[in-house]
Amino acid sequence: MAAKKKGSDKQAQVDTTLAEVDEFEVAAASGGWEETPVRKAAHFWPSAKRLIGLMGPYKVGMSVVFALITVYVVLSVIAPRILGRAMDVIFAGMIGKNMQVPPGTTADQIVQGMRDAGETTQADMLSRVDFVPGQGIDFAQLSRYILLVLAMYFVASIFSWVSGWLLNKLVMRVVYNLRKDVEDKINRLPLNYFDTRQRGDILSRVTNDVDNIQNALQQALSQLVQSIMTVIGIVIMMFVVSWQLALIALVALPLSAVGAGFIGSKAQKLFTAQWKNTGALNGQIEESFSGHELMKVFGREDDMVERFTERNEELYKASFGAQFVSGMIMPVMNFVSYLSYVGIAVVGGLRVASGSMSLGDATAFIQYSREFTQPLGQIAGVANMLQSGVASAERTFELLDAEEQEPEEAKQQLPARTDGHVSFENVSFSYNPEQPLIENLSFDADPGHTVAIVGPTGAGKTTLVNLVMRFYELNSGRIMLDNANITDLSRADLRSKVGMVLQDAWLFGGTIMENIRYGRLDATDEEVYEAAKATFVDRFVRALPDGYDTIIDEEGTNVSAGEKQLITIARAFVANPSLLILDEATSSVDTRTEVLVQHAMAALRSDRTSFVIAHRLSTIRDADTILVMESGKIVEQGNHEELLTTQGAYYNLYQSQFAGPAEDVDANPDTSAVPVAAGTPVPGAKTPDTVTETE
């Protein structure tokens, strides 16, 4: 097609460093594919918000998850305070056991005695200890505290596991719906979307990016929610134990937030570049595999390796930079937490010595300070995964937000069987507004007639049938099918009346029977056999060990190119369409098979309108009408004999194939071609029976 600009090969060299990532762009390797510039970090929060918004339909389930996590957090943050009480019991027992005082002496009397003796510091410290002189550790009380803590941790673990299981289940449902939305979106996108983008990049968005989103939601979201709620709970408990030490601990928060925010913004850009480069590299690999034979023929192995190395290097730089920069978050936060820990240990020790707090409370607070940094560290640890997931989400949302094909409103409906009368009325169309292609084109294709379309490459032949199929919408004019404007029909209704055989045969992984039946899924086995016999598929299928149950791999490498084309023609046969489009349908078959297929197609075309695009003029000599196109315009119209008689554009094309180079035709205008259908040779011309075509 003209939009793909076949044959062009444009490579934009990417020169980027980590310091220049703001300028980063991925250029297409060939074919003029357009790429969307890399999004900046400013898109992180809108994309993250939209990503979380995907959980919206599961509000009830998410509420249950939050409730379970809340219970887990409450139990987890209260347990250290109870352990502090157990520590106080042990400390009090040790103090009381070592007190050598007369029987009946109370703790208050001992503390007051120390104050009277000038031992104020020791008195202040013991004033916070609930000891009994001469009595050791109260193991009954200690056991109750320990059993309570164990029970709390056990229940918290159960709630944590259940919340994780439920959250993962919800995330998998979200990803399932996302994949479904992406698949539905692919089917709603216009053909020009795929014509202007690398297939490898689209595949990367549909597969790699969605998988990365799944990993981010599955692993990062559960830890993120749990860690945030744990931080909140620990902060509350720290203020309950000692607001002075809590203020010291909270000094680390803004420092950590600033460091993580600064590093995270840099990492986000690099993660975006990483996934853009992944798409570009996939496109390069896809091109290398699909054009492997051609690459070998022209000896471009070194060139392809060099281009792969360049893109691989770009991906390496972006991936290494993303992981390195995001990996700095954890060390920075740990350093800040260590500073906070030192401050808490010093101030806490002084407060215990001064009697401002008990040893158990100090122990509990130190545990809180360590547990406080743990969820912060977890938040930092999942930051790179979350940023990578959001970068993939941006690319996936770009696909989901792409402009879809124009909405349709079915004002008419075709009957089950149509006559197949097609009329072009002042049709104008161009892929690029600045480069007109088809302008004010008008012609009629009568029911049951075969219309052949010929002309040089880029003349608009394939574009013409794409307009009939509504792969593209007209700029102006209209196309009528049996007095119905095709824009008034649903695309599904229109295309259900059309059978199409393309130059590039497409088969899917499955049996030969399934590939033929793809034309009409409700076709019986007998109908499939009849179509196969009519298209001479049956003759080579019967020779296969498994016959029609032979499995064709996804690339169709276990059948020849000609056999693949025959199967696609059989698929069109079994569809039994009212309108048939053959776009170079016999280009991949040998000369003998071509003759047989022409007979089969003649039978197929007997009661339906057919459009045949061909470069081999020998395949369309019996067409009722031949349209000769140049630069989007019909320059000649008539049957084979009429066009040869006029000695115009068709005559020159015919002579170039059967009577020598075009320049010889111009030099000898009296040399005429053979009207083969009439069977009367023209002096000086070669007949198709004695000519070997070269294409």
From TrEMBL:
What protein am I looking at?
A: Multidrug ABC transporter ATP-binding protein
Topology versus the membrane: Multi-pass membrane protein
Q: Where in the cell is it found?
A: Cell membrane
Q: Where would you say this protein principally sits, based on its record? A: membrane
Residue intervals of the ABC transmembrane type-1 domain: 64-388
Q: Where is the ABC transporter domain?
A: 422-656
Tell me the organism: Glutamicibacter ardleyensis
Q: Per the record, which residues fall in region Disordered?
A: 661-695
Q: What is the lineage of its organism?
A: Bacteria, Bacillati, Actinomycetota, Actinomycetes, Micrococcales
Has the keyword Nucleotide-binding been applied to this entry? yes
Taxonomically, the superkingdom here is Bacteria
Task: Print the keywords alphabetically.
Answer: ATP-binding, Membrane, Nucleotide-binding, Transmembrane, Transmembrane helix
GO MF annotation terms: ATP binding
Matching entries from Gene3D superfamilies are given as: ABC transporter type 1, transmembrane domain (1.20.1560.10), P-loop containing nucleotide triphosphate hydrolases (3.40.50.300)
Q: Where are the transmembrane segments?
A: 60-79, 145-167, 228-253, 335-353
